[in-house]
Predict the structure.
Amino acid sequence: MDKTHAGKTAVITGAARGIGQALAQRFAEHGANVVGVDLLGQTETAALVSPKAEFLAVRADLTVAADVAMAAVSSRDRFGRADILVNCAGIYPHCSWDELDYATWKHVFAVNLDSQFLMCKAFVPQMQARRYGRIINFTSGIFQMPVPQYTAYRASKAGCIGFTRSLAADLGEFGITVNAVSPSFVVTPGVLEVGNAHMADQIIAAQSIKRQSTPYDITGLVLFLASDDADFVTGQTMHADGGLVNR
């Protein structure tokens, strides 16, 4: 296996399952130490990662600044630095406009967008000190599509793109790149929990590649953006969506 990320430390939110778990496994396969940050337990992820690389599981609420700060301290104490930060965690509830209340709106933004801000505030100083870093924020192409009942989700994911472009402008002088990744619809445990799996056939029909995407369809793009080969790529939103979004 290619050891592109040997000696580096990758911090991944939402690493307990789904795309985040697949990313933890792939970074380990490519030589990186991995820090998984999640509100859920990460026993399964640890079993996948530990045979290949060092793994630190941090249980934290990504919407709580103190929890996120603790995660940054734990990561630094264990590995000394953070080279790569992947903000993968997210939620995707669906409801009509009439049903959408302010509490739900705020919660979706807290998990999908505020958590990215808090993680960057906590981990960027470690990158600035070394004048090197790779940040990859997860967004979604759904905000470009006429999909009803996802007002809060779509708005939060549009915010991720704005945050990514703005942060890239601020951090370029420190050798830190910031990019966003937009995956296709992946049927993860989280998707099944909120009853969104019914969307899969509709989205597959709209893709150029007519099959259901998997977490591992997304990981290659993230690994590239986290590598030295992407040293001059920043402020971009890149799609791993089988040709779903008409750009």
The chain has one domain: 9-184+213-240. Strands lie at 9-13, 33-38, 55-59, 84-87, 133-138, 176-183, 237-240.
